[in-house]
Amino acid sequence: MEKRGVESLFMVFVILGLLVGQSAADFKDCYGSCFLTCMIFERDPVKCGSKCLKACLGTYSSQNLKHTDYFCKLGCANSLCTNLSTKLDPAVEKVEGCVNSCSETCSKN
């Protein structure tokens, strides 16, 4: 039980570290690092993909992003993009393209 707690705490710090100073331009770096780190502990590419999409899409705020736009992108990316990553390949280019496609779809609605 203690080992699991330490692993979880470590993941929190890794994800927080990835978020500091993050911009939309470095989604690939954020997602790739987050995914590979997560796979060390989780070993589930879909779960890691989902966690890292949430972390790397950034947080929403009323000042810079509509709540509905953020949740639309997150939902779309979770549905369509998480299965692109595998245990051996985070497929950051494909995931980024998929997320960008979700951004376009969500901004139209």
From TrEMBL:
InterPro entries in alphabetical order: THNL (IPR038975)
Domain of life: Eukaryota
Signal sequence region: 1-25
Alphabetically ordered keywords of this record: Signal
Protein name: Thionin-like protein 2
Source organism (scientific name): Acer yangbiense
UniProt lineage: Eukaryota, Viridiplantae, Streptophyta, Embryophyta, Tracheophyta
